[in-house]
Design goal:
The complex is a heterodimer of chains A (153) and B (290). Chain A has 153 residues and is α+β, with helices and mostly antiparallel strands. Chain A is built from five helices and five strands. In chain A, strands 2-1-5-3-4 form a five-stranded mixed beta sheet, with helices on both faces. In chain B, a hairpin with a 5-residue loop joins strand 12 and strand 13. The chains are: A alpha+beta (153), B alpha+beta (290). The interface between A and B is medium-sized, with 31 and 31 residues.
Chain lengths: 153, 290
């Protein structure tokens, strides 16, 4: 099986690696770069746990091949905190109990990060719409809605 | 690694992509947005020898345009890009309304219009929308280019007029005639889930509020998006009064043969489709009266 040389910038750091044809972007981030903050749930695009931002757009990293990210700018959950300080969105998640086990959290954070760049989220309905592409199976969505609204203020 | 082994190709031009499809044909699949194909590869429901990634064949294949009465959506135009294109959404509000109900932004950021059409899931929104407008599908191969209309394009579940060496290069959609009202209604158990039922309709009224022309299609009740021709005939020439709407809903129930699954029984889906039909026509009447 062929390997392809790729150059990918992840959280402002440029990586040059060789990747097999069928390696997904999610597995590339976790296994080749050891950026294990991105989680894999369903691996078919439904759960949203693996959401990352590629060239400014939130996408499912399980539905993109690593080789397709050649030349792209990727943002993952590891890039959110400012040094040891959680960023305002992460702090809002913490304050509002927007996570319990934390498995889905990275995906939620990246989806919400992309959505808030598009503009403020001011109502419950808008917040739920922003959150609808990610699934949480333990703590529910009330804390998440509050966190999104607070982070958007 | 989830997918079974394949050889990845990334052509840098359309002719190069078409040559690869000519060479590998039956053993190859085209990768555009990957939002349907990648899950199938990850599940190994699809196992292929060659993957032809068209994402780098050129920006001209990613740029939609409106030229007079024609909206052209090329192979690589993302769903998100179309829903945010004010000119296209103004020209065909039906497309914007349907796109908001296609999965989630994270999916629409990658997913293409042409990819969804080529995938041809009869329960999906976009094939249903394309069934109620005048549209031309341009199919390209190394042998040349040909065009087909919607009735010819969608053939069966996940089956289109595309030959193994062909690529859906673009769709050209004619703007509906001035004064045409368009409505899209669907029901899904959760936001962004696959619809349990959906109706797309275009409806042109005369000055007195009488329907002079209409096209109506239902999703998820047949092997392809289903034009409800009996319902169209029934409501044409009427003012969509409550008696007509009730009769149209009954005619819809009689026209569709959905299959049941874990999410909803066949009978539920039939009643749902009839209800959505009634709501769609009521919304069209209301929008016409404005």
């Amino acid at each position: 099986m062929a390997e392809h040389p790729i150059t990918v910038t992840v959280n402002d750091i440029e990586y040059q690696r060789s990747v097999p044809d069928r390696l997904t972007l999610a597995d590339f981030l976790r296994e080749k770069l050891r950026l294990t903050g991105t989680h894999l749930g369903c691996e078919h695009g439904v759960c949203g746990a693996c959401t990352v931002i590629v060239d400014g757009a939130a996408v499912r990293s399980c539905l993109m091949l690593a080789v397709q990210a050649d030349g792209c700018q990727v943002e993952t959950v590891e890039g959110l905190a400012e040094g040891p300080e959680l960023n305002p969105l992460q702090q809002a998640f913490q304050r509002n109990y927007a996570l319990q086990c934390g498995f889905c959290t990275a995906g939620f954070l990246m989806s919400v990060t992309a959505a808030l760049r598009d503009g403020p989220v001011t109502t419950d309905t808008e917040a739920r719409d922003v959150l609808s592409g990610n699934i949480c199976r333990c703590t529910g969505y009330t804390g998440l809605v509050k966190a999104v609204l607070e982070a958007s203020e | 690694m989830k997918p079974a082994p394949f050889t990845y190709h990334v052509p840098r031009s359309l002719p190069e992509a078409l040559d690869l499809l000519a060479e590998h044909g039956d053993d190859a699949k085209v990768l555009a947005g990957g939002q349907s194909l990648m899950p199938m590869l990850n599940f190994r429901l699809a196992q292929i020898e060659h993957l032809v990634d068209i994402n780098r064949i050129g920006a001209e294949h990613a740029t939609p345009r409106v030229d007079g009465a024609t909206i052209t959506i090329p192979a690589l135009a993302r769903q998100r890009q179309i829903e945010r294109n004010a000119e296209i959404v103004a020209a065909l509000p039906l497309l914007g309304a349907a796109l908001h109900q296609v999965a989630h932004p994270q999916i629409r950021n990658r997913g293409t219009i042409c990819g969804s059409l080529a995938h041809a899931d009869p329960a999906a929104e976009l094939p249903t929308v394309l069934s109620v407008v005048d549209a031309t599908f341009t199919l390209a191969s190394a042998r040349g280019v040909r065009t087909v209309d919607v009735a010819e394009f969608f053939q069966f579940y996940f089956t289109t007029a595309l030959e193994p060496d062909e690529l859906l290069l673009q769709v050209d959609i004619r703007k509906p005639a001035p004064g045409t009202v368009t409505v899209f209604r669907e029901f899904a158990t959760r936001r962004g889930d696959f619809a349990l039922g959906a109706i797309a309709a275009t409806c042109r009224f005369d000055a007195s509020g009488t329907v002079v022309d209409t096209r109506i299609a239902a999703a998820g009740v047949s092997a392809t998006p289903l034009r409800l021709t009996a319902v169209e005939q029934l409501v044409t020439g009427t003012d969509l009064n409550p008696e007509v709407l009730a009769a149209a809903a009954d005619a819809t129930s009689a026209s569709v043969e959905p299959t049941g699954d874990i999410h909803a029984s066949a009978d539920y889906r039939r009643r749902l489709t009839a209800t959505l039909l009634r709501r769609t026509l009521a919304a069209a009447k209301e929008e016409h009266h404005g």
